[in-house]
Amino acid sequence: MQINCPSCGAPLELSYRAAKVVVCNYCGQTSFINAGQLEAYGGAKVLLADYGSLFELHQRGKIKNLSFEIMGRLRFEYYEGFWDEWLVLLNGEEEAWLQEDEGELTLFRKARISGETPAFDTIRVGQTVTLQLQLPDNGKVGNYPIFIIEKHKATIQGGEGELPFLIEPGEQADYADGICNGAPVSIDYTVEGISVSWGLPLAVKDINFV
Predict the structure, then answer these.
(1) Measured between alpha carbons, how far is 13 from 154 in angstroms, rounded to an integer?
(2) 167/165 Cα distance (integer angstroms)
(3) What is the pTM of this model?
(4) Could you give the CA distance from residue 35 to residue 156 in angstroms, rounded to a whole number?
């Protein structure tokens, strides 16, 4: 479906049915999708193309044996710089995030939280946090010990494309990163709530574009 940006009037293509937000590629205006209409909110923020990313909106291909299409992007800032997370639709239905951080690539898929998750302020680097989770790849529910290796306060710098939740440039997005059985795990604390994502490290050769 094509619709016009309420700020600059540029044509925008909406293709992701679950999207709640679209960011204009021309002026950076963030708009809420409401009954097929766009309602502008917050400020406009255009992400600068200040490094050579492998990815762009609407690219398609395969990550290992999973087909994907890139629907949107978020950029996060923290004290060391920034990283990007690309919203990908796996096999036409599953939301996942492809993290691009200083040349390192990780595919993060949501794990379902079955028990309690500790508050951000109580987590410490070097601590082991045990969470009851249902993993995205095999659906197994169990108690998973996560060794915390990093914890930071971050902010959302901006976004582009279609996104599954409301964003506001400058919005706080805290996180704690850990390792469980060799897999990277991210515990994210945003205004949307707490989420846990299970990661798969990738090499460039693991991604094939079509």
Answers:
(1) 30
(2) 6
(3) 0.89
(4) 26
Q: What angle do CA 143, 149, 150 make, to 5 degrees?
A: 115
Across the strands, what pairs with 162? 22
Rounded to a whole number, what is the distance in angstroms from the first to the last CA of the chain?
Answer: 23
Please state whether beta strands 60-63 and 207-209 pair in parallel, antiparallel, or not at all (unpaired). Answer: antiparallel
In order of their start, the domains of the chain are: 1-46 (2.20.28), 59-204 (no CATH)
Predicted confidence (pLDDT) per residue in 50-108, tens digit: 567 889 999 999 999 899 999 999 999 988 789 999 999 999 889 999 999 988 999 99
Across 146-168, b (16+ Cβ under 10 Å) vs e yields: bebeebeebbbbbbbbbbeeebb
**193, HSE (Cβ side, Cα atoms, 13 Å):** 7
CA distances from 10 to 4, 72, 79, 162 (A): 5, 17, 34, 15
